[in-house]
Description:
The complex is a heterodimer of chains A (109) and B (79). Chain A has 5 helices and 4 strands. By secondary structure, chain A is an alpha+beta fold. In chain A, strands 2-1-3-4 form a 4-stranded mixed β-sheet. In chain A, β1 (17-21), α2 and β2 (48-51) form a beta-alpha-beta unit. In chain A, α2 packs parallel to α4. Chain A is globular and about 35 Å long. Chain B is of the alpha+beta class. Chain B has one domain (3-74): GMP Synthetase, Chain A, domain 3. Chain B is 42% helix and 25% strand. Chain B contains 4 helices and 3 strands; from the N terminus they run αββααβα. The interface between A and B is medium-sized, with 15 and 12 residues.
Amino acid sequence: MANTIEQIQSTIANNKIVIFMKGSRNFPMCGFSAATVQIFEELGASFETVDVLADEDLRQAIKTYSSWPTIPQVYMNGKFLGGCDIVRELHESGELQSLVDQLGDRAHS
Amino acid sequence: MDPAEIKRLIEEGLPGSTVEVRDTTGGGDHFEALVVSSSFEGKGLVERHQAVYQALGDAMRVRVHALALKTLTPEQHQR
């Protein structure tokens, strides 16, 4: 379990935005993961994804790491941002757009 | 699981809260919940949701596949 946690920590530290999801960006395996990826694509943000279905240890470790029981999980600037409903709420309020802009991480303008 | 049981667990875990729960697919594992509690005052979304997950405890790890949450303070709910 220990190196799984290290793997999680380094992924989070090395990417401004990372989404731990079910499936991949192009082949999401769950509606909530797909919706979360779509929101960040709409914002033009560049982000990393990690498929938790590919590694059962990772899938359980990430839930303990953030004391958050569901997937997807979004991390921004090394901090836990939330799951699908929080990302949606931040997107609807426009707050997510400003968070992404602050990161200066527009994949394409 | 059924919505009534989820509602009971959240109300027990967050005394004084008002809770509405809906099964979104009819399959007993995808739910939507509105939780109104004064304990959310001054707390961000992540903390609010974690408090609800705390109240659900094991049910959340095992029997609930998805729970979309709306967490408001009484004042926000009136708006």
